[in-house]
């Protein structure tokens, strides 16, 4: 049996709950991962093709004999690159469909259908200006309607390029244009990858990866950016606030509701419903002290960024949350919801409530969400949870761990913080100058984004936490999103005390600006906030993103969305370190292309490094090399 890291975690609450779940005879992700060993080598290397019914075909690499081509003649390079491209397209589709739903929600808000409204007028006007929408003598609703329609057009417009590409530095846009990978419309790029990778179509690995890059860029600079920006318009742009994180945020004597998944449309309505006096009174009538709302995965990130709602945990903690026996309802929308939840709730009173047509789970209660009746439906869901409180029968065990930290560092919030040290006579408010000055002076060596999921191939959370600690120790500012953000806040890296882990330069910056050294920038789609920040820094310095002393890492990634994120980051000129190898190792050619040759074309590249300490060293090396090239 292969050596694995089952049930290891650097998070005490997770270790305790895992042990407890074992005692209770419950099956969790770690048990299933162990049962899966050894995992299929062909799949792991990307060498299995099922693209037509002549297959499945697999390329045998470990022995001299055995097939070296698929039945149609597809080589390992073709098969591996096609599989990778399809995963990227699926990831881009998932993020972008989320963005489409948000654009639709803004459209309804503009028509005054339903409960949403424009909360961030400034951001709406900023986007309107960027997109040449007339604002003079028009109501906010008229502007919002036009922006929403234009955002919806981004998915399928027949001509032109994505509007948000205009945010990228000019040098970057020229690279994309010359390579023919400037995305035209989001759906079109995803469809094109699916077409090109159909049996008997594109067999050239470079061309396949180029097309995948185009689809990935349509995610980062398209679907995800629309998701982030329009969510801010509807629900407000996050500002810093304090919150708590880990399973210890659950409260024994309260009705506990966990919202889990990705889209803020439902969870925002549940935040409102959970404060409804009638529902709180109903909860008290059931014997509870009140209603306690907590978030999981990226839904958790969305509502903590905007409301400071406590974060119950990340991807690997979803089953463990139910095993506390204290969750009265787990309400899910889309993405990263383990189908196993419907099994584990059978042992508890917990109601698993699915809400999206795109993500039903057998055994769950389905209460379809409708953007036009958001709060009404949210109240029904909360009522369901409240009435379930009295059905608690099992022993309750909530681990006491809960960490404190600051969240809510949107791009706009970061600019506002930088204003504190900006000479307002020389520079207008909202400049990245202080950040650039700190990097140029060397007080700050650079910045790194740590993003992504949990994966049993890496000890839970320790990829994120070890890497973050190693980087801040070396004066590298860390920004984070997704489940990486959960890991960092649980480890105390978003509290002011975390300056104790920092090098002298970063500690000085953090104390001056009153920020933690690891900044929570939001959910997975909010990596687009990082793109906007990097673009503005590059533009301020008169250069390209690929020239900056920055890097990205996904130490515990697992999803197709993460593959899309990785490729759009590389295609935006960023060095990306992955803690888990993607399924491309079956082709040395494709590995060499993505980890080396692609840098000459796009300025960014992938690196695979499973040891987070070594990953930090590689990031430091990259950042110092970029500094040297900049002469700083
Ligand atoms: Fe096999 Fe080619 Fe069909 Fe893939 S497309 S399953 S390699 S025959
Ligand atoms: S939730 S995609 S496990 S980060 Fe965005 Fe976490 Fe990864 Fe899902």
Any overview of this molecule?
Strand 7, helix 14 and strand 8 (about 350-355) form a beta-alpha-beta unit. The model is unreliable at about 1-5 (pLDDT under 50). The protein has 3 domains: about 75-235, Substrate Binding Domain Of Dnak, Chain:A, Domain 2 (Up-down Bundle), CATH 1.20.1270.30; about 245-390, Rossmann fold; about 410-630, Rossmann fold, CATH 3.40.50. The chain has about 625 residues and is α/β, with parallel strands linked by helices. The chain starts with 11 loop residues before the first helix and ends with a helix. It is globular and about 65 Å long. The protein has helices spanning about 10-25, 30-35, 40-45, 75-110, 120-130, 140-155, 170-180, 185-195, 205-235, 265-275, 275-285, 295-305, 320-325, 340-345, 375-390, 410-420, 435-440, 460-475, 480-490, 505-515, 525-540, 560-570, 590-600, 610-630; strands spanning about 50, 55-60, 240-245, 255-260, 290-295, 310-315, 325-330, 350-355, 365, 405, 445-450, 475-480, 520, 550-555, 575-580, 605-610. The chain is built from 24 helices and 16 strands. The longest helix has about 35 residues, at about 75-110. It has a 6-stranded parallel sheet with strand order 6-5-4-7-8-9. It has a 6-stranded parallel sheet with strand order 13-12-11-14-15-16, with helices on both faces. It has a two-stranded antiparallel ribbon with strand order 1-2. The protein is about 45% helix and about 10% strand. Broken Fe4S4 cluster binds next to helix 12, helix 19 and helix 22. Homodimer. It catalyses: CO + 2 oxidized [2Fe-2S]-[ferredoxin] + H2O = 2 reduced [2Fe-2S]-[ferredoxin] + CO2 + 2 H(+). Its cofactor is [4Fe-4S] cluster. Belongs to the Ni-containing carbon monoxide dehydrogenase family. Its EC number is 1.2.7.4.
